[in-house]
Every structure is written in C-alpha cells, then in structure tokens.
Amino acid sequence: MTQSFFDQMRRYDPQAIRQYYRYRPWQAIWRALTIIWLFSGFILSLKWDEWFNQVEANKLKRATQLRQLLTHLGPTYIKVGQALSTRPDLIRKDFLDELTKLQDRLPPFPTPIAFAIIERELDRSIEETYSEISPEPVAAASLGQVYRARLRSGEEVAVKVQRPNLLPVLTLDLYLLRWAASWMTPWLPLNLGHDLTLIVDEFGTKLFEEVDYLNEGRNAEKFAANFQNDPSVKVPLIYWRYSNRHVLTLEWINGYKLTDIPKIRASNLDENRLIEIGVTAGLRQLLEYGFFHADPHPGNLFATPTGQMAYIDFGMMDQLSEDTKETLVDAVVHLVNQDYHELAKDFVKLGFLTPDTDICPIVPALETVLGNALGESVRDFNFKTITDQFAEVMYDYPFRLPAKFALIIRSLVTQEGLALSLNPDFKIIDIAYPYVARRLLTGESPQLRRRLIEVLFKDGKFQWQRLENLIRIARSDTKFDILPTAQLGLQYLLSDEGQPLRRQLILALVEDDRLHTEEVRRLWNLIKDDVKPSQLIGAALGALTGFSSTGALLPSVTPFMPFSFNGPPGRAEHYRS
Question: What tens digit of pLDDT does each residue of 350-396 get?
C-alpha cells in the first residue's frame, strides 16, 4: 500500500502527504529526532572549538563534518548545501570548498541498480541501447547520477538515472519542513512568515517536477527555443527515444565547471566574458522570456572550450507572467533612479505588500535602507547588501515574501555568488542595469515603449536626467549603438501611437531652462514651416547634444502638424497648444 501511494503521486500534494504521515507518526518523529540530533552535534562541535580555542585547528574537520551531515540527511538538505556553496560572501572558504562537493561528487548508488532502472524504464537491455557506457557514474548529484555513453547510432550522450526510492525521502522532509514553517510563523517579523508554508509548497512543487525527467526534457527544449538565436548559450539535445520519467538521455557536453578557474584560464577563456554571458542569460530568462532556471549552481553550468555557457539541468524551472516581467524591469529602473515612491508601488504589484497597504510611511524607510545599500555609486549594489539592509525593514513594515519570488531570489543570489567565485570584485548591477537600459531604449514591444515613457515622464514633466543616465549606462556596453536605437525611438515617436509623447516632448523642450531662445525659435520655425518631423527632432537633439540637426541619418516619414502654437517665439509659456 505504501509503494502504491508513492507510485500514484505525480504532483506535489501537501494535503495528501499530511494525511499519509498522520497515520505514520513514528516515521515523522524518528526523522525529526535524527535531524535535531545531527545538527545539535554539529553546533556543539563548533561551540567546543570556540571554548577551547581550536577553531583554526579544526576548521577543515568541521567543514567535512557539515558536508557529511547534509549528505547523510539526503536530497532535501543537499539542495540547501548546494545553494550555500555558491555564496563566497556568506560562507567561510573552508566550508565553501566542502559544500562545492555536493554539486556532483556525492556518494553514488550501485551501478547494477542504476542499470536495472535503465532497462526497466526503457524496456530494453543496456547492450541494445548503448554501444558503450561507463562502468561507474561520472557524476552523482542529489536526485540522480550520470553515466557517459554512446548510442548504437553513434552519438555521445549523458545518461541521467534517478536515485531509487526518492519520493518517500522527499515527502517526509517536506512534511516536516511544512510543519516547522507553520510553527515558526509567530516568531518571524510581521508578515515574513505569513506565506512561509506556501514557500515550502513552492519548493515541494519544484522538487516533484525535478524528479520527473520527462518534464525536465520538455523544459530543456523550451529553454533551447528561447535561446536559439543566442550563440553564446548552449543547450544539450534530448533523445526522447531513450528517456522516461526516471531516465533521461541527452547530448554530452564537453566543458569546465565555472568554479574550475585553472582549467578555464588554461583554455584561454575570458572569465569576465563568461560572467557577462551568465548574468545576461539570467536576466533574459527573467525579463524577456519569463521562463527561468531556478537552480543555476556550478554543477549545472559549464564553460565550453569555444566560450559558450552550457546549461545541463532543467529540472527546477519556473514561469513568470507578462505583468511580472514588466514590473521587474520597472523595479530595477526605479531602484537605480532612486524613485522610492514608484518602487513601493512595484512592491505592491509584485505581492511584497498587500494592495491596501499605506505606502507613504514605507517610502522614507526604503529611501534610508536602499539608499545606504546603493552607496555613493550604483556599482556598490549587490544582493548580499540588499538582503542585509532589507531585513531591518521587514521587522517594522508589513512586507511578505511571495512564494513565487523565493525561487527568483534564490536564482539571482546563486548567479551573483557564482560570478563572485570567478571575480570577487564583480557587481551584478554593472551588467543588469545596462541590459535594462538597452531593453527600454530599443523598446521592441509596445509594453516596453510604454514603460520607457513612464520612466522618462514624472508629473507631466520630461526627466532629462533619466534619459541621459539611460543612454550613458547603455553605452557603457561597447556593443550598444546609439543610432539604431535613436531610429527605433524616432519611428515610434513619429507614429500614430507616439502622438501623445510628441506633445509632451515638445512642451518639455520649450520649457526646459537649458534651451536658449534661439534654439526655441528654430523649433518654432520648423513647426511653422511644416517641415519633415525628422528635421524637427534633429533640431531638438542638436539643441540638447550638439549633434547635427540635418536629420540626414533619420528615417524619412510623412510630415505631420500636431501642434498649434499661439504667439511669437519668446518665453516658454507662449508655446502651449
């Protein structure tokens, strides 16, 4: 009956799991006592070292002890260790080196059992399927292990085989974690614990998806389709004929783990370029496609000899809505522009604050905390700083952590930690904000164009400083060309859709104190003479930037006459329509 229960479970169901263990309390009690006993022993060992001044002498021993403890507790706790292994700014180096071994150097289960699983799942013998296969796994992870093989048709492949009896372990740990989350809620700051059980449920949902290898294969193909035009990202092919729920056969990837810096340097690969590829790919997943890799630890990411970034594990993925993607873009821009009132609104849209929350008292707190976190320069920003500073606000204001964002934050923090392991001076904002600036300026979708207008206009006034900041930061990337971007912007500006923006822009131009009377006169003459709008915009750009106002580089468009000015050139208030 027990095995039948787990055989029938295809999706995470917390109520069914609770019902199952309610009638088996001895299993839950024994597991809880085991976890408490092991962690108590480890904490006591650390305290013993402190009491007797043996911290330095025993640090390697304690690091090994922690890794062995997490390994002994099984897949759920190994996942925690994997996440910590990417945070050199949080974890001592001795602990970090040991936790890194949790990524793909875990104790394997016996190969005869693995081969029996392959034959049962694929309904054919090993000899029928592969012309050769490694006698031992080349890597062992939390949920399975990998063999290197060659198909009868000649392709070199990686064969992932799931650990046996995985669901009983996962469900018991999730049951205990959910119980602990509900018990801890009153002790957490305000609403932080309000959705803590939902966060556990989100984690459980993703774990169940991860143990279904058919789902992982579909995720890989969707991810590959998103990046099909990006030669810097490599995704392995899936061989469906040789895959099932517990066995996955995919293209073998030759490469180096991103933490293997000596091999990366020996291959003459650019570490900073790899960081840029990884972070940009992560941003595109969140802000363009909304389909993101939620577990990007070094065991899942490789640098290929050709300089590509290869993703090899697609079990833990998640999908964002279009509104969420757009709001995330807003939040990044509002944060860097230090527009904390709009940022508070973004928190409401994203679910960190309830819609009925009065944001007025929260805005000054955000300004104090996040202003300090940003420091004197945007480059001082990192997620570790934000996490530390933001914890103070959680105690005093009704913030909560939406379950969906637990995975997003984990993904971002993991990527930042991975980049820090390659370059300790790395600042994620150096790549993130230029990327967002380019996205806004190119405005390939109506939604992004509307977002750009919202960024550039505040209280009906054009924010020149924000536009200058966007262009300056976007141009920090040598691949960013301002002219095609300007053409795209002007095509929008001169279209029917851009008519409201034209009115606002001209009013802003003539009201801007930096424009001299002669420059306003030139704009007036162009409008009065009904010349091409490209010349009008060229004159405006010339007045602001010193560029030529001939409009020679601008797209040809149909003349328009959207304004009617009253009065001669002179003071700005005479030019209102």
Answer: 888 888 888 888 888 888 777 665 544 444 556 656 665 666 666 67
Identify whether the C-beta of residue 439 lies closer than 8 Å to the C-beta of residue 287: yes
Are 315 and 143 in contact, with CB atoms under 8 Å apart? Answer: yes
What is the distance between the alpha carbons of residues 207 and 300, in angstroms, rounded to a whole number? Answer: 16
Q: Residue ranges of the chain with pLDDT lower than 50?
A: 190-193, 375-379, 523-524, 526-534, 543-577
- Contact predicate 564/524, CB 8 Å: no
Place of tokens 């994997």: 82
Estimate the share of the chain in helix, then strand, then coil, as percent rounded to the nearest 5: 60, 10, 30
| Cα–Cα dist 455/96, whole Å | 41
**SS3 of residue 498 by DSSP:** coil
The amino acid that residue 384 corresponds to is K
Of 217, 171, 198, 210, the closest CA to residue 28 belongs to: 171
Element (H, E) at 461: strand 461-462
In the set 295, 330, 339, 430, the catalytic residue is: 295
Is 295 one of the catalytic residues? Answer: yes
Query: Both tokens of residue 536?
Result: 């009008």
3-state secondary structure of 103: coil
User: What confidence tens digit (pLDDT) does each residue in 300-348 have?
Assistant: 889 999 999 999 889 888 888 888 888 887 887 787 677 888 889 998 9
Tell me the HSE value of 230 on the side-chain side, using a 13 A CA sphere: 20
Q: Which letter does DSSP use for residue 190 in this model?
A: G
Q: How far is CA 249 from CA 127, 139, 149, in A?
A: 15, 14, 9
Give 15-57 as a DSSP string.
HHHHHHHHT-HHHHHHHHHHHHHHHHHHHHHHHHHHHTT-HHH
DSSP calls for 315-365: SSEEE--HHHHHHHHHHHHHHHTT-HHHHHHHHHHHTSS-TT---TTHHHH
| Cβ atoms < 10 Å from Cβ of 67 | 22
Q: Of 184, 186, 175, 181, whose CA–CA distance to 199 is shortest? A: 181
Angle at which helix 322-336 crosses helix 446-456, to 10 degrees, equals 30
